[in-house]
Write a structure and sequence with these properties.
Shape: globular
Number of strands: 5
Radius of gyration: 14 Å
Distance between the termini: 21 Å
Helix content: 10-25%
Structural class: alpha+beta
Largest sheet: 5 strands, antiparallel
Number of helices: 3
Oligomer: single chain
Strand content: 25-35%
């Protein structure tokens, strides 16, 4: 599930994910420095096909939400929310990652 585009300050925005972003997503996600800080389910190397599968899953998910993070119109990373279940059903896990060339640009500070 994706939501409406959200534009912040300093060139940072969250936008709706679509398949046209798969190529750029695969390029910035195919980085060992990105993968080593994420769950094991995050593939490395990260291929174009991985990006297409991920995008298809996100677009079909009616419960959880994910958005691409843009910095000055460049795809910089992803942020997502996963609803928790059972005794944690009133909560959610929020996670994000940024491509290494976008580190140190205060992007995360825009939202947190």
């Amino acid at each position: 599930m994706t939501g409406p585009d959200i534009f912040g300050n300093h060139g940072v925005s969250l936008r709706s994910l679509d398949l046209s972003m798969a190529r750029d997503l695969s390029v910035i996600a195919n980085d060992a420095e990105v993968a080593k800080h994420l769950r094991n389910i995050f593939p490395h190397p990260y291929s174009y096909d991985d990006a297409v599968v991920f995008t298809s899953i996100v677009l079909g998910d009616k419960v959880n939400s994910s958005w691409p993070i843009f910095f000055n119109d460049d795809l910089a990373g992803m942020i997502g929310m996963i609803r928790l279940y059972d005794v944690y059903s009133h909560g959610a896990e929020i996670g994000y990652w940024l491509g290494t060339k976008f580190h140190g640009k205060s992007i995360a500070e825009e939202w947190f």
